[in-house]
Design a protein that fits this description.
The complex is a heterodimer. By secondary structure, chain A is mostly helical. Chain A has 9 helices and no strands. In chain A, helix 7 packs across helix 9. Chain A is globular and about 55 Å long. Chain B has 9 helices and no strands. Among the domains of chain B are: 51 residues, no CATH class; 67 residues, no CATH class. By secondary structure, chain B is mainly alpha-helical. The chains are: A mainly alpha, B mainly alpha. Chains A and B meet through helix 2, helix 3, helix 6 and helix 9 of A and helix 1, helix 2 and helix 3 of B.
Chain lengths: 182, 183
Amino acid sequence: MPDERILVLLQKERNYERGFRLLMGKYQERLYWHVRRMVTQHEDANDVIQNCFVKVYRSIHSFQGKSKLYTWLYRIATNEAITYLNKRNRKATASMDDEENNLSNRLHADCYFDGDEAQIRLQQAITKLPEKQRLVFNLRYFDEMTYKEMSGVLDTSVGALKASFHHAVKKVENFVRSVETF
Amino acid sequence: MMTRKDDLQEELKKVSPFLADFRKKGDGFSVPKNYFKTLPDEVLKQIGEDAIRAKPPAKQKGSWLDEMISAIQFLLQPKYAMAVASVLLLIVACIFIFQRQNAPNPLAINVQKVPLEEISFEEMDAYIAQNIDDFEEDLLVPDGFSEGETEAFSNLHLKDKEIENYLDDVIEEMDLSELEDIL
């Protein structure tokens, strides 16, 4: 269903829940996977995505239509995920090497991770990227978002995003290949 | 027309053919069965629970006596008590002033109108004697005196002693029978 129709439903109280369910049906998977790739574990992603949609439910009236609806939704989801990660990192006291091991251990223990060792290394490589570069890599590599769409979400120029992505790709490749050759 | 996927693959092949190929493996993440079917219900449930938590608890209704006591305690708060006292004072003052305006004057004499023909000469004389100062001299015309004589008398400024001496002289000159009539 087009975003315009969903927004019309969300303007009337009697149609609000129906409009909200339609909105969730359209965007929940994309937003979930975006959050999941940032926080890696399903339980954490579930908490973050629910908080995200609660926020959307309460603040949809403030959406002014200056950007596309999914851009606005991605921004909320990204901010919620970053907030969660910052909170988790404040509690963490382990070194970077320990953090790699912790992530590996978490993914091995996670019943909702079906990947092999190579995919674990990929996740480790992505985790080592700076926060914004990690976002750029995930949005382009996994979500197939265009640079123009990404510019709306991250409020960064297309040129800067392209450069950031290319740097991230090189770093990730080097990390994964270094394990393979080791 | 190139799709998003095609566009990305073309770019990755240029930057990192390794990752362009690696991408086919996916990220390895999965979700519980029917997760996305139940997610909207979970979110709406959380919204409902948050709304209930945010709502203040409903006041429990007590007996009418408790409610009355509560109302009195509310009114006894200084700011409300002052306001109530001011209003009551104003009402009392208005009642007092209104009653005072309508109350009869206790000093007022209850005057009854009596026809002139029912007033006796004795009563008239007594009234005139009591209120002689209120009468104008030119209205006081004695019986038997002419206007000229009356005018002459009004111009006299006699002392009481002089008047007595005069009357003595008049009595001595009168006939005895006339004097007996007068007395």
